[in-house]
Structures are given as structure tokens and as C-alpha cells.
Give the backbone structure.
Amino acid sequence: MAKEEEKGECGGWKEKGHENGVCTADASAKPITGDENPQPPGWFAEYSPLWPGQAHFLKIERVLFEGKSQYQHMIVLESTAYGKVFVLDGALQLTEKDECAYQEMITHLPLCSIPNPQKVLLIGGGDGGILREISRHSSVVHIDICEMDMMLIDVYREFFPEVAIGYDDPRVRLHIMDGSEFLKSAQVGTYDAIIVDAFDPIRPEHEIFGSPFFETVAKALREGGVMCIQAESLWFPSLNLPKLIHTFRNIFKGSVSYAWTPVPAYPSGVIGFLLCSTEGPHVDFTRPANPLDHHDAGSSFGVAKEPPKFYNAEMHSASFCLPSFARDCV
Amino acid sequence: MAKEEEKGECGGWKEKGHENGVCTADASAKPITGDENPQPPGWFAEYSPLWPGQAHFLKIERVLFEGKSQYQHMIVLESTAYGKVFVLDGALQLTEKDECAYQEMITHLPLCSIPNPQKVLLIGGGDGGILREISRHSSVVHIDICEMDMMLIDVYREFFPEVAIGYDDPRVRLHIMDGSEFLKSAQVGTYDAIIVDAFDPIRPEHEIFGSPFFETVAKALREGGVMCIQAESLWFPSLNLPKLIHTFRNIFKGSVSYAWTPVPAYPSGVIGFLLCSTEGPHVDFTRPANPLDHHDAGSSFGVAKEPPKFYNAEMHSASFCLPSFARDCV
């Protein structure tokens, strides 16, 4: 290897016989400067505060809608690569191209892990895509959803009808209210499964952990009931998986597992899920006890017009296999 | 849903009682314009010709090296989020943060699928990371590598010593030449495994398919020998998986499988691998016959200073589980 003092104008390459080597910079170069978060015209750029110094850029064909509810700012974009895109307060929520991955996994990972789910609560998920997925389960008799923002639902209904179609299921009861408030008055042991799609992201230092929110989730579940919540990306340096799992084990008292799945429009191209069960019949999240493949999928049950595009029983189990850097710390 | 004629200044939201709704655009908006491929100062942007209209942006702290060999243009960047980054002719090759995923998977997927691999050929892979991973296999007695560009090797040796450490394995024989030329004179049935890390990307319409390249790869393998090559992203609209598998099945005559794994710095956040075996003892790529976990990993065998960060036997099998949109077409 070239030593420091051997470096000429080309970091040592000419000296080593690389006649074609032309060097314009070396390790002594000064730091380069640029915009902290550039926003080139005609492109949507999402910067994740969880992993600064990178961004996913989408070329935009048209702005289809921009509006502000009493809670949040919404944009619907037509993108070149991902079809329609919904942006909430500057953060990409879903795209037509890859919403299947997130919606199917956050729904079927918990619902396929327990036999015969009947009562399900969804907190957030106002787009309706998770409702569409719950709807595939013929065992389900009742679906509560708490979404605070009626305007968000209406915008999804207009621009993403294949996602918002979940609201058409007659088992759905829509509660326009804060999920935390709803849970305070929920009867103990009511639900077989609770899916939380309300805040982004989940971190042990998040303010939600200082509140009794997850305790009320655990109480609202029956014994051996399950919760699923999105949980960052394995690639984020900020993800403290051992601490996250320890925290949730203390709250839910049953099994706790972490899964991940590719979603290309999300920062780092993957999203994680945390799955917890309460004390009671043991839940092994890694093996679907209630595989969707074998009964409902592909049949006409529920409101979805097409069978699942992403989820299947093999993907279910595979999503719990973690790379060594993560596996060895849980 | 709001009908077209009901839309006022706010796409119908005010009419529906959303007093806070403020709309600045609707579906009748004209297409917006912008740079085709913006390059904000201080950021590296990679645009994939395989999936236009999106880009992965990395914030750059310093340019550590820029040079040109007789074959290609190279840049080494210090990035904020991924550590050092190597860019070849404008395309990101590897980053310090996530090179483990690509190097470990492209190596151990083939080598752990057959018992007792002894002779291995690597075409391309001049950075040395795949050599570092092959080096973990104690059964291997001989490793040939064909890399055309000596300057590329030297740049990796200087700036990525933990990657280029693979060259330090005494079983390695470096051939500075074109892999196609090397294969023409290779003895029939020589190798247990051949790893191709030379061109990007692999598509049935690629010029390499009109050449006898893959036939020479198949001939150089022993009966029941294996080849692994990177094979795009499942998310790319251009990936024609059935055609790809059909083409390779005709050439290699044994089993053909497709795997995928997350690599956040690559376009769409994942990379695929195509694995083929020649006629002879059947190879089931999905179940490691030679699991690295159980003997070499974590031991001091080979030149790597640390055990694998990403690969393990569970990740091996999981990488062959495909989402329904892909599984149902192979």
C-alpha cells in the first residue's frame, strides 16, 4: 500500500505504474459543503431524522392534492416510479407501488399468529389499507378503528380507493377519536388483536413510553392476545433492539418478537415490526398458526378485489429471521 | 366521495365540512417540471437506469480519492450515514456500513449450499470482500480471482483495508485479466463454485446473453457445482424473473433459485441473487448443506478479523422466500 509520503498528485497511483490514473482529490481534501436537506424542484425528498445524511428522492409528475386539516398537512403526488404517493406533514406515508408490503405484513403477522381472531382494534391506519387486509379474515366478527382525522380518510377515499376500500367492510366500526382515549374506556380483555399504526417511529425514549398507552393496549387484549406496531428499520443506528424488546416484554408479559420486511419507499428500504402477546396461551409469532394461504387468500372473502400481493406463509416466517448483527443482540 | 363538479377551491373538502381544509392543488394541476437527475452540491445521488424517477442520496463529508484507470472512473467518498463509499463510473459499489450484507450473501449462499467446496472462482469482485468471505471456509483449497483493473484493487487496499483483506489469504491466485478470457482456457469441471460479481445488472436482454459467457461458466463447474450472480431487485419493473430463470435453467441444466436480501445503499434497498447448479448431485439452495454457523463462523479461520455480521443459516433460507407477486410467477 502506498505510504503517506509517497503520495504525489495522484495519491501514489502514478508512482505505482498506473499511467492512466488521474487524481483530483485525496484524503487531505477539505470537508465539502452543501445544503443540509436539498429539495430539487420536481422531486419529493424525504429526510429521516432517524438516519441523517441520506434521503430517498422521488420524481414528481403532478401534485394531485394539497390540503391541511385541523391536525396535519397532506399532499397527494403522482410520482414517476411509485404511482400515487401520500405525504403527511412532509413524511411519506404510502405509495401505490409498495403499500401492499407494509399493509399486508403489519396485519397478517399478528392475525395469522393466533387461531381464530374475532375482535380486532386498529389504532390509526386511517388510509384503510389495514382494514382491507383484516377484511380477508373470515373469522373476524368485529373491527374497531380509531382515527382522529376525518379529512385524511376522505382524501384517501378519493385518491386511493383501492386502499380505502377497507372501510366498505360491514364489520368495521369507525371511531373518529384519539386511540388513547378510546382505550381508556375499552373493556378489559376485549380484543384478540390490536394493530397500532399511529405514530412513527417507535423508540424507547419516545414520549409514548412515559404514558400508560401500551399498558392500556395490553389490558384491552384477551389472554394470549397480540399487538403489532411498526418499529423502525434494523439499519437505523438509533434502533436499540434489546432495550425495545425488554421494555415491551415487561409491559405485555407474553412473547415478544421482531420482524422486518422490505418496503422500498421507506427510509433504508425496510421497515420493522414489533409483535407482543399477553400472558396466556403461548404465541409463537414465527410460525403462522392461522395461515392465510390455506383458506381465504385468493377467495372472494372480504372487500379486497385482489388476493394479497406480498404476504404468504413463507414470507411470514422469513420476516423473523434477522441478520447476525441484530439476531445476536436479542 | 366528492364529485368533480363539487370541487371548489379545496377539492370539495370545505363543502364537506372540513373548515380547516386549505387546498393549493387538485387533479387538474399541470405537470410539474424539474431537473431530470438533480445533483445537489454536497450530496452523491445515484440514479438507477433500471428504475427511473427515483434516487438514493448520500450526504458527503469529503472526497477522499478521485481517479481514472484505463478502464473506469473511481471515487472514494466519506459519507455521513454510510462511512466510506466507493463509486465506479457514477454507480455506488459498496459502503462501509452495509457491504457485509452483499458480500456475505453472494458468497455464502452458494458455498453453504454444497458440502465441502474446495475450488472457487471469483469473476470480478476486485474489492476483495468476497475473497474475505470465501476465506472463512476451511474446506476451500484454491481461490482464483479474475479482475481486470489493478488500480481498482490498489484503491480498495488503501481506502477499504477491511474489505481488501481478502487478498491476504494465501489460497488466493489473482489473475489480472478478463474473466471471459480466463474461462476460455479453464479446464472443464474444475470448480465447485463460481461467483460472478462483474457486471451490473443481469437481464436476459443484456449483451452477455448473446455471448457464450454463461456456457463457459457452466462448463468450468464440476457436476453439481454452483454459480451465484447478483440479479437486480425484485422491485424493479424491468426484472422478468420467469424469463431469467428459464434462460439459466437451459444453460446450467440443474436447479435454479432466486434469493433477495436488504442492502440499504442499493437502489430500492434490496439486491437479488440468481443461483444455478449444473447437472449432477441435486443442489437445494434453500437449505444450507454446509452451514457456516456450525464450524467456521466466529472461529479464527480465514483472514477476516470479525465473524460474519449479516449471514447466518436462518437468513440463508429466508432469502429464498419471495413475496407472492414474485413467488407466483416462478
Notes: Residues 1-27 of chain B have pLDDT under 50 and may be disordered. Chain B touches chain A through 91 residues (CB under 8 Å).
